Amino acid sequence: MFQQMKNIDQAFRQVRHFTLVVIIGSLFLCGFTLYKSYQLVNRLQNKVYVLANHKALEAYASERKENIPVEARDHIKTFHEYFFTLDSDEKVIRSNISKALYLADVSAKRVYDNLKENGYYTNIISGNISQQIKVDSVQVNTKQYPYYFRCYATQSIIRTTSQVLRSLLTEGYLRSVSRSDNNPHGFLIERWQTLDNRDVKTENR
After folding, report:
1. pTM here?
2. How far apart, in whole angstroms, are the C-alpha atoms of residue 72 and residue 63?
3. What SS3 class is residue 81?
4. Rounded to 5 degrees, what are φ and ψ at 145?
């Protein structure tokens, strides 16, 4: 009888140990599952899918500071393309300049007013001149705020009988502002000025 009681006690201990192992294993499995689920949710929160041309393209969310150099260069490039791309059409000129002035402060407006006062845009319209620009490179110093930049570009001025290539070098500073439809990068160009703008080559057409 004592042997039987001993066997029951031993069996009870084994069942208790087995139950503890099962409970600990279950807790570990639940904890591991929760940890992996949390990781997956975090990964999915950093993914955005953009629908373009009936295709879902994956985009990734990132901190603004990681994109500052790229966005700054694109902002400067966009501003120069709007400001210096002109055709012999008053509406085109007004539209491009208007878009450019959203990206810069009064320093750009001052340059525009001076050119307008000197009849620059009138000459483009009356002479059927087209002006295009190619931004060669943009250097931005993001170590100090506001961010100093230099923009190197080539202007192409196309007249009826000739085409003039001009080198263009400008500088300025970038200040962070709120993003908007008119200013998607959230930067404003300040103290913008032209350092060099001279003829490089003239070709007959």
Report:
1. 0.69
2. 14
3. helix
4. -105, 140
